[in-house]
Write a structure and sequence with these properties.
The complex is a heterotetramer, with two copies of chain A (about 625 residues) and two copies of chain B (about 350 residues).
Chain A (H helix, E strand, L loop, with lengths): L3 H4 L11 E9 L4 H14 L3 E7 L14 E9 L10 E6 L2 H7 L3 E10 L5 H7 L15 E5 L1 H8 L7 H6 L1 H12 L5 H10 L4 H20 L19 E7 H16 L3 E5 L6 H8 L6 E5 L3 H13 L3 E6 L1 H17 L3 E7 L16 H6 L9 E3 L5 H16 L2 E7 H5 L1 E5 L15 E2 L19 E2 L9 E3 L14 H17 L9 E3 L4 E8 L3 H13 L4 E6 L1 E3 L5 H6 L1 E8 L4 H10 L4 E4 L8 H17 L1
Parallel strand pairs in A: 1-4, 4-5, 5-6, 8-9, 8-10, 10-11, 11-13, 12-13, 15-16, 19-20, 19-22, 22-23
Antiparallel strand pairs in A: 1-3, 2-3, 7-14, 12-21, 18-20
Helix pairs in contact in A: 2-7, 2-8, 3-4, 5-9, 7-9, 8-9, 10-11, 10-15, 12-13, 18-21
Chain B lengths: L28 H15 L6 E5 L14 E4 L5 H11 L4 E7 H5 L3 H10 L4 E6 L34 H7 L4 E6 L3 H13 L4 E6 L11 H4 L1 H7 E4 L6 E2 L5 E5 L6 E5 L18 H8 L8 E8 L5 H9 L6 H9 L3 E4 L1
Parallel strand pairs in B: 1-2, 1-3, 3-4, 4-6, 5-6, 7-11
Antiparallel strand pairs in B: 5-11, 8-9, 9-10
Helix pairs in contact in B: 1-6
Classes of the chains: A alpha/beta (about 625), B alpha/beta (about 350).
Bound molecules: thiamine diphosphate (2 copies), iron/sulfur cluster (2 copies) and magnesium ion (2 copies).
The site of one iron/sulfur cluster has 11 residues of chain B, from loops.
Keywords (chains A, C): Oxidoreductase
Protein name (chains A, C): 2-oxoglutarate ferredoxin oxidoreductase subunit alpha
Organism (chains A, C): Aestuariispira insulae
């Protein structure tokens, strides 16, 4: 089991942990995201591999002290490659009763709770729904509790600073951060430097923040209760050398799309309408004007898709993004892009549904929509990113396919990937990527026809307004082969339908063959995943391999068309298990495509899989197959 | 931005494609097509730099008949597609064509935002007060009571009014023309073209098959003089045969009235001068629907302000993006080295 | 082969034809639809079974004489049950060269052409693209041609009438109709009565029309060329006794939806936005106010769907309709209906795509969209009508399921069904239908909760605004089980997802088991169809059965959920052939659902299957299976 | 149509649900909620006959807090859903609540058609000039230059104006209120409720988290008197501390100006009387944005005409549909008997 099991001291290095999971939780106003972010940075600098996950409340800012106002940040870090955010929490830092009650379920038995006892007032207890104070009534006996009056300790620490009491209280997250940094043997240097940048010019506030941070750290070393405080040692992980940074999926996507455009030598016109959890991509790209990225916040999703199509028509890389309900609105426009064969990248940051559903929760239930969700026979390639940093590469691939094949491409990510961060070895954009052809825009063509196809890719030429001599007209009514004029001819319709299908099917020969990313090349059981289930599946397979079980992990990047060798690979296994955060969509899709008899593992709770859930399902299949 | 071939003067026919025009014989669209082709020739438009974008409908077939770049998109979305085109390349000369259904029913939101944002395009709304292509259902501009296949008992809705809508949306250039007086229409189109920002032109268009004569009371030869007023900036607002009639404010009221020079003591000096930058007057002119008052034709309102696409282009500037620059970006901020 | 093959005199009754196919084609202004409609009526009254298909031009009214202005009407009628509109035409009546050139392909070799030679002027020939006059240059040698100067003959016939020349020419379609009526031994009575109604009060016009009609009829009997004119005898078909009328799919749908509402004792609020070929339904329903049908022409498809949802929320049967691109726009709203579990019927009159595609041509390519085309896990029942008259029954079934299960229901029809007409035995609405429960609206509930489900159907209660005591709030954010309050709880989301899935799956036990509609109960080959392919498949299977080939026809009405016994039935056949007017959607869908290995027969030309195309594909499979 | 339980007077609290209100502390929405609950109590609304419909956004959470019927629909579509509800049952008392994004961005087309058709509802647009729920992107009503996560260099669009938009759409009742003077807001809401047809009320609302103080220059206590004018039909349009200021037409111009009684010879008689049926004046009042002119509050325009839903209901009438009648229909026309 990921996370929790490994905090139990590793038998080989009795003083070291292989990995640990820490969660900071408090009121929306308590600065937990900032605390988590700083802890992450210090941890990365200490050489651990890690994965993080912020968990915002759905309400913008609910009344202080309520359960639905709780904001949390989780980090899983370790001495080995970290694949998940961790099944169970080892150390839970809570700033109030509401944070405790909403997060306790995820704490492993025997886990540590650091609680700001000062905030466990009657009023706050009542707001959280406690009848008695859990720090005192014995109800937390299964855990280790360290109640500290962090409010008071912070106030004392900053007493000499020239700030108001309200401002003083605001620094209590830094006090807590200091303490936890100490517990995990990290120093305060990274955070101190960051504070100096952030509060440059605000000397008093800066001084207070520094004081609080240092006081928390010092408290660990000197306080009387320090004997109770565990000290954890998580040695650096063995990760490939290189320059690293932390990256969220949204950032990776933004940069990857831009990198793809640079490789294609195209400006990007990004058109979107805000929606959780896709908006982050709009925000990041809005700041990238220097890289020829123009962002347009449209009046709705339809306008966003249409404007992106217009931009592609005019010779830019049109990109649009949304989440499930917004993608639904774009459907008709996607049909137009398919019919007019214009390049377009459509990013879908999936969330819980149907309808408004669970906007802030993750789910991967838009696979059907991506592959099948359009009127008529309207094929388009579908890609899915597996991790935050993988978003970068998938985005480049999307731009490559869109421009090479003159087609819209659907790129699936999800709420988890958008917000989760992980260290990313920064690539060398010039050397690490096979540069694909420069812009495919034609400028001089003798005997130009807008639907004259490339013999190999079947792509039509991209001739953009402003180019002398190539004036032409395109539209959504069926177009005659070659000329593109309106045609109602029956045979032409069949021919164009065949072209549209075959063009996309042909991509199967232009993508990397499917690989098995962990485990034996053949055997009893393959676990087949797509999207953000990568982490838990990979860890589960690793764990099982370590205990000698022959299980393999296969992870799809290309959902449509599927890699040409996928059927062959799957054939080599007796069982295929398909875990999905939906009601079995890839499972059904592969039945349709490959007549694959697989086992579906479904989880529709808005939460990522836990490693042990996958291990359990795999074990059941392995046992079942022993019986045979 | 785009290189153009050496200029040679083009005539209206140079803007016609080889595609057969497929409107019903007698449809008002033919005349408008002629008018637009003439306008393009007159202003010396370059076909390679000119783009026609439309939604779906009879009117929306327009791009197929123009030997320029053309995009026949989907119903109601021409304004949105066009916005993307202008963002991608603000140097293009962009014309949007849409019917009343395309523009004011399914597409009204995009039209609203195009006008509000002031995207530099010419929007031509062919208003025939009917859904032509889908065979004659009433449209949002159809008059109450119109019997159609979807309103056998007569339409029961208050109609939408294109010009007041455009003004309410914040449009900075608003004009009206018709499918009969093509020369005047062409003048109006030239003004629209010259205006930087979104230019909105309502064109009254006869659908001979499903709504014949909808504008007869305004456009018929024998009625036109009294039923229309042709506005010219800085000129008195006169109309009628021999321009004997004119508009003035009802004394002490915020209401226009039509008066006859020489009657009831009215003199030329009483007639209001058209000030096309006056938004309040534009609202009053837009509201004129007959029969007491003539229908306003020509440029009703024109008060330029910065165009959205140009503003963005200015901010974007010349950026010289490069892989190197991007490499710098991804390496900036908090990084650390392993190994 | 349907149609053409059977005009060859039937061996048993040497003077009689088993069936014949006639097509009238001319300019849009030539009144071909009217001519066809009147011929149909006369034929129905003569006791034949029949099927008709109007083929309008896509342009509203293209310039006279052009090929894209050609309007045609086809009727297939016979002495047996008629299933299709006929593969090939036996008698082609053309009013101008454009009509000839666009329709000749469908005429069987040896078929008869009646041409208005007067319209074969140089100008018209050029417009149609002829270089020489085909009536004279021998290019039609494979056919029998009867060129008549119909214009002139008509003018002569009405010379004494007090009408203008333009008006005189307008009656030439009636002259042609008269002639064809004579050829098929029908009298002019029905048409004369109809003319009298239509031109009541316009004595001159009436007289001219009557004169033209009679002249055409008389011409057959008396004209000098009458020896050349074949006389066809198509005896009455053996059809079940009853009261009959002709009905198009659009009418049947309109009446069926209304009948369903009457059975449920609900008013209907029908909300739509015009689109070909769905508009017809709006037009028919607009005239049905007397039956508590309120129609609303919305500003777009999204508004139409939302208004229908609003109407259902307020206690009416909300119905919305469109075609593929418009259904795409409704997608997000359908998610809301699924989430809030409100009844709704969504009619999709499918047409050629993608995008605007071929608006006036038929296709059945929205199956994927219907079943899978929504974000998230969002199941809803999908039904498909097979013939014009079947639309009536399917519409009733849609209302039944929507109200009983509190769910949106997708009803698929297509451009062919919407416009095609066939005789319909008028049912006795009281006796012929099992009446389903009256309106399911609750009014008095103790301890009311909006998501308290019926134990059997899993439907939630339908409590409508205006009812005292049942005030409640619903919405698209995930709802807590029972109370319906907003809930972000993970387990609740899983539970509600399961409910939504299982509620729809449960319908499989509440629908008629799948039947084999023609051919043996088991064997070598089953042809499995859905929607409007019914006619050609049924005829093909009939033909093959007659020649002793063991082929069966299975036709789906319920696409989702599938009938519970479908897998069992299909298991009984060695081969399953799935003909579809799309790129293989049911084929793929049944692989996913049943792991069915079938053969796909695809046709994407905007035209219905021809019987022989199905026979050929079936024969290939049968031969292949002999080899085994 | 629906039977109601015997009337007992209800207080504002009787309209509150048991659900915790989940807006940010200090959000202007709280005050509006109170105002609406008070209004319903004051007008004696029956909860079972009252329906709140909303789209998506912070504002759109409103229905969950009202102990009436409520439908929290999808983003931008509340007006469309509401139209269906009213067609199905015109007797319901229907309130729509939407944010500026919900109403004027994605949903503006439905709002336009609701107003044009004159569906009998109250539409409350909570304008905070920001997308609150999605964390602070600029909205169509945001002022040019506003820096937000999606406009780091400042918004570059001409903002939409709710009241001019509504007037351009053909609305027959247009008013404005704010989240601070709740008593006045409540009076305006009562007027909106009393008006048969679509009543449009823009409510200026402070988003304390993402756009705090957007209306400070109008709403702050020390500025309100001079920055707002409270309109009352038939009364002189006066404002300012002690109502010393007033509006008049600039002599000879179609422009309003603010004057002070007693200064420059201005007397009470010079001040314009508010005529809420005057569409031209409504346009001028709607355009007042400060700083020279005060922002108009209260009922700006009210000129009733037939409501769409009522018109349809009248045509539908009582039909007594039956299976028999339907049987007659399908048997009518051309039929024939076989056998
Ligand atoms: C999404 C969608 N909805 C509906 C249609 C059907 N449709 C095509 S054109 C049209 C309206 C035509 O009216 P208008 O825009 O006034 O143009 P006109 O034909 O009168 O010139 C409609 C409803 C469509 N093509 N696509
Ligand atoms: C189809 C769709 N697009 C986008 C969203 C995301 N979204 C939810 S509310 C909102 C805008 C909120 O702004 P506003 O309407 O002004 O309401 P406020 O939160 O400010 O009250 C957006 C963009 C959504 N839920 N659905
Ligand atoms: S239907 Fe009307 S608008 Fe359309 S082409 Fe014909 S006349 Fe013109
Ligand atoms: S984000 Fe703004 S509008 Fe939304 S609840 Fe918070 S303060 Fe109110
Ligand atoms: Mg029109
Ligand atoms: Mg807002």
């Amino acid at each position: 089991m990921d996370g929790s099991s490994n905090t139990v001291p590793n038998p080989d290095h009795s003083d070291a942990l292989e990995s640990a999971v820490v969660r900071f939780a408090g009121d929306s106003g308590d600065g937990m995201q900032l605390t988590g972010g700083q802890f992450t940075l210090a941890t990365a600098v200490a050489g651990n591999d890690l994965a993080t996950f912020p968990d915002f409340p759905a309400e913008i800012r609910a009344p202080v002290g309520t359960t639905y106002g709780v904001s949390a940040f989780q980090i899983h870090f370790g001495a080995r490659k970290i694949r998940t955010i961790g099944d169970m929490v080892d150390v839970l830092v809570v700033m109030n009763p509401a944070a405790l009650i909403t997060n306790l379920n995820d704490l492993r038995r025997g886990g540590l709770i650091i609680a700001d006892a000062g905030s466990f007032t009657d009023r706050n207890l009542r707001k959280a729904g406690y009848e008695a104070n859990p720090l005192e009534d014995g109800s937390l006996d299964a855990y280790r509790i360290i109640p500290l009056d962090i409010q008071k300790l912070t106030q004392d620490a900053v007493a000499d600073c020239n700030i108001s009491n309200k401002e003083a209280l605001r620094t209590k997250n830094l006090w807590s951060l200091g303490l936890v940094l100490w517990m995990f043997e990290r120093d305060t240097g990274t955070t101190l430097r960051w504070l100096e940048e952030k509060f440059a010019g605000k000397a008093d506030i800066l001084a207070a923040n520094k004081a609080a941070l240092k006081a928390g750290h010092a408290f660990g070393e000197t306080a009387e209760i320090s004997a109770e405080l565990p000290l954890y040692h998580v040695p650096p992980a063995d990760i490939p050398p290189g320059l690293y940074r932390n990256i969220t999926g949204a950032e990776a996507l933004a940069w990857g799309l831009t990198a793809g455009c640079r490789m294609a030598d195209l400006g990007m016109t990004f058109c979107s309408y805000p929606i959780t959890p896709a908006s982050q991509l709009l925000h990041v790209l809005s700041k990238m004007r220097d890289h020829d990225v123009l962002t347009f916040q449209a009046e709705d999703e339809i306008a966003a898709a249409c404007a992106a199509i217009g931009a592609s028509y005019a010779g830019k890389m049109g990109v649009t993004s949304s989440s499930g309900p917004g993608i639904a609105l774009k459907t008709e426009a996607l049909g137009l892009a398919i019919a007019t064969e214009l390049p377009l990248v459509v990013v879908n940051a999936q969330r819980g549904g149907p309808s408004t559903g669970l906007p802030t929760k993750t789910e991967q239930s838009d696979l059907f929509q991506a592959v099948f969700g359009r009127n008529s026979d309207a094929p388009m390639p579908v890609l899915a990113a597996r991790t935050a940093s993988d978003c970068f590469d998938v985005a480049i691939e999307a731009v490559r396919l869109a421009t090479k094949y003159m087609t819209p491409v659907m790129l699936l990510t999800d709420g988890y990937l958008q917000n989760a961060s992980e260290p990313w070895r920064i690539p060398d954009l010039e050397k690490d990527y096979e540069h694909f052809a420069k812009e495919r825009i034609v400028t001089e063509v003798t005997d130009f026809h807008p639907y004259d196809r490339d013999g190999e890719t079947l792509a039509r030429p991209w001739a953009v307004p402003g180019t002398p001599g190539l004036m032409h007209r395109i539209g959504g009514i069926e177009r005659a082969d070659v000329t593109g004029n309106i045609s109602y001819d029956p045979d032409n319709h069949q021919k164009m339908t065949d072209f549209r299908r075959n063009k996309i099917l042909g991509i199967a020969d232009d993508i990397a063959p499917q690989e098995i990313c962990r485990g034996p090349e053949q055997g009893v059981l393959a676990i087949l995943g797509w999207g953000s289930t990568f982490g838990p599946i990979h860890r589960a397979v690793g764990n099982m391999n370590e205990t000698g079980l022959a299980v393999s992990h296969i992870h799809l990047r290309h959902i449509w068309p599927l890699p040409a060798n996928l059927a062959d690979i799957l054939d080599r296994f007796d069982h295929v298990l398909i875990p999905e955060m939906n009601d079995g969509q890839l499972f059904k899709f592969l039945r349709a495509e490959l007549l694959l008899e697989a086992t579906s593992l479904r989880k529709v709770t808005g939460k990522p899989f836990k490693v042990h859930e996958i291990e359990t399902a795999a074990a059941a299949l392995l046992e079942g197959s022993d019986d045979e | 931005m785009n290189e153009t071939s050496p200029m040679k003067p083009l005539g209206p026919k140079d803007f016609a494609t080889d595609q057969d025009v497929r409107w019903c014989p007698g449809c008002g669209d033919y005349a408008i097509l002629k008018g637009v082709q003439k306008t393009l020739a007159d202003i010396g438009a370059r076909p390679e730099n000119t783009v026609f974008i439309s939604g779906i409908g009879c009117a929306a077939r327009f791009p197929y008949y123009m030997k320029t770049y053309g995009f026949h998109t989907i119903h109601g979305r021409a304004a949105a597609v066009a916005t993307g085109v202008k963002l991608a390349n603000p140097d293009l000369d962009l014309w949007i064509v849409g019917g009343d259904g395309d523009s004011l029913s399914i597409g009204a939101n995009h039209l609203f935002h195009l006008l509000r944002r002031n995207v530099d395009v010419q929007y031509l709304l062919f208003n025939n007060e009917i859904y032509g292509l889908t065979k004659g259902q009433y449209s949002p501009t159809s008059r109450a009571g119109l019997r159609t296949p979807s309103s056998p008992a007569g339409a029961m809705e208050q109609p939408a009014h294109a010009i007041p809508f455009a003004l309410g949306a914040g449009a900075r250039f608003v004009a009206r023309g018709g499918d009969v007086r093509i020369k005047e229409l062409s003048e109006t189109l030239k003004r629209a073209h010259a205006h930087k920002g979104a230019s909105f032109v309502e064109i009254l268009q006869n659908c001979i098959v499903y709504n014949d004569g909808a504008f007869g009371h305004i456009m018929d030869k024998d009625k036109a003089d009294d039923a229309q007023i042709h506005l010219e900036n800085g000129q008195p607002m006169r109309f009628g045969r021999e321009a004997k009639k004119g508009l003035r404010l009802k004394p002490g009221k915020l209401q226009l009235e039509a008066v006859t020079i020489g009657e009831n003591g009215v003199t030329e000096a009483d007639i209001l001068i058209h000030d096309e930058t006056d938004r309040v007057m534009a609202g009053m002119l837009a509201a004129m629907e007959g029969p007491d008052l003539p229908v306003a034709m020509g440029v009703i309102y024109c008060a330029p302000t910065a165009a959205f696409d140009q503003q963005i282009a200015d901010v974007m500037g010349r950026r010289n993006p490069s892989i190197k620059k991007l490499q710098n970006l991804i390496e900036a901020g908090h990084t650390w080295t392993v190994g």
